[in-house]
Amino acid sequence: MQQRKKLNLNASAFSCEINDPQINSNNQPSQSTNFQPDVKYENQETNQFRYDYHYAYHYTDQNRQNTNFFYQKKANQQSKRIEQNENRLQIKNNKLDLQDNCKQEQKEKQSQKIEKQIKNNKAQQSQVESQDQQKIIKQEKLEAPEEPKQLVLDPKLGYWTYSQKEYEEFNKQVKEYQIKKAEYDERIKGQRMLEQRKRMEKFSKLKEKKQKRNNLLGMKKINQLIRELRIQYKQYVRREKKKQFGYVLDDNDNIQIVEQEKKKKKLSKIQKAKQLWDNLNDPDYETVDEDQIKQDDQQLITILNQLSKINPYSKEKYNNMKIRPWITQIPCKELDDMTLQFINELSFMQAKKKVIEPKKMKKRVVAGIKECLRSIQYTLPEKSSKLIIVPIGIQECPIKNGPDHHILKILKEGYNKNIPIIFASTRSKLGRAFSGKFGPKISVISVINYQNMEEQFTKLIQQSEQQREQFRQLYGDINVIEYINQI
């Protein structure tokens, strides 16, 4: 910046008058305008003053206000920009803080789940460790080393065209290849030895089995004869009984024997649904309209899909059985044994009473879908159900009037009436416990009267509640009732 000058002048030198018609025409100030300097006197007694050489004099107060307003506007804009930048930085910092908090919460939840699984599954963990020790290490897939690229003659010139460096590198690659090949051969020999050991172990196990069989040849031979007789009986005897014959007269009045057509049995709604589902899965069966079936049963399919999304336990298995999405209880062997024993004793007491006093007999246990629905819908406490047992290994059949549709109905009414429900065992085992060795497969059982069996009943319910608490600790609370009530 240039230095400012100080001059001593009289104030009268800057007083003047202007008379110009062009200026006054466009709304300009009047003809008589007195331009006075805006200065600060150093000494009031004298007329000396200081001024800048850039601006010798100022026009008026309005022009002064305009300049001040311009500088204030710039200052305000700068302050606003600073505030905006600060706000943006705060927003970014807040987002980063939220992401860090979410990651920490996820890590904490995962650690809590792992701790709970370790506490509840100590016995399972010990079994897994023992099994891992017994397992043999899997054989690694070995790959043979690649041979080095050999040096080649130039076909045009007919002599070697490589340099000394290339020759040295080639020799290094050859040495490395020889070392790797030796290691590869040793590993293959080790794997072959392991395979031979495995074969010898299998051979020794087969020998032990044969020895055990030879020790029990007497009983085995008898059982084999019985099996062969049963097969022959099924193949020859029963087929002839099922055939129906008729007599017909010819034109010459001669009698002829003709096989009649068998009467088809009437299938129930559940059996029809199963048959239709089996036909859908067969690729050779072409007369089924899949689109029409899905339109009729779209509501049930959507409910099952929603339940499978909510319940992550449905992706796992129990004894090679698929766990259906409505199960909110972790199964175990103790609970299965208790339920089978409880049902077997009740059914035995029921059958005994039927033989001794058939007139006074009252139902204690009921099996099947129709009878279970009736027992749940009864209003009388004597005939209403006190407990429902559903097996785990129920096959998929998302069709109307199928097993999935009826089981969801039973669960709906059972939850609404606060009836305890237990998920345990399989269909075949429940059938054997209910009606003996050759019993059919059962999909639902309901208990109506458990007199003289109160202790076992309370233990069974306590065990089921423990398994449900274990489920909640691992997977949280799942409200299945909201989706089942849509049916």
Automatic annotation (TrEMBL):
<keyword id="KW-0175">Coiled coil</keyword>
<feature type="coiled-coil region">
    <location>
        <begin position="72"/>
        <end position="134"/>
    </location>
</feature>
<dbReference type="GO" id="GO:1990904">
    <property type="term" value="C:ribonucleoprotein complex"/>
</dbReference>
<protein>
    <recommendedName>
        <fullName>Ribosomal protein L7Ae/L30e/S12e/Gadd45 domain-containing protein</fullName>
    </recommendedName>
</protein>
<dbReference type="InterPro" id="IPR040051">
    <property type="entry name" value="SECISBP2"/>
</dbReference>
<dbReference type="GO" id="GO:0043021">
    <property type="term" value="F:ribonucleoprotein complex binding"/>
</dbReference>
<dbReference type="GO" id="GO:0005739">
    <property type="term" value="C:mitochondrion"/>
</dbReference>
<dbReference type="GO" id="GO:0003730">
    <property type="term" value="F:mRNA 3'-UTR binding"/>
</dbReference>
<dbReference type="GO" id="GO:0035368">
    <property type="term" value="F:selenocysteine insertion sequence binding"/>
</dbReference>
